[in-house]
Design brief:
Layout: E1 13-15, E2 25-31, E3 34-39, E4 43-48, E5 55-56
Antiparallel strand pairs: 1-2, 1-5, 2-3, 3-4
InterPro entries: DUF3553
């Protein structure tokens, strides 16, 4: 099974499993294992995708 981070693309909505208070974030860029996400409550954060598995959010 492919890691979830491998499906992430700019514009997708995600949550950080270890930081639920950050709220939902929008992926800004994915460069290798570096994933830049703009979170509603935490602002722009660069995530190490090799260490953190972001969870896609599908809002209706």
């Amino acid at each position: 099974m492919k890691p979830l981070n491998s499906i992430l693309e700019p514009g997708m909505l995600v949550r950080h499993p270890g930081q639920p208070d950050w709220g939902i974030g929008q992926v800004q860029s994915v460069i290798g294992a570096r994933i830049t996400v703009n979170f509603r409550e935490a602002g722009k954060v660069v995530i190490d995708g090799a260490r953190v598995e972001l969870m896609p959010v599908y809002e209706s």
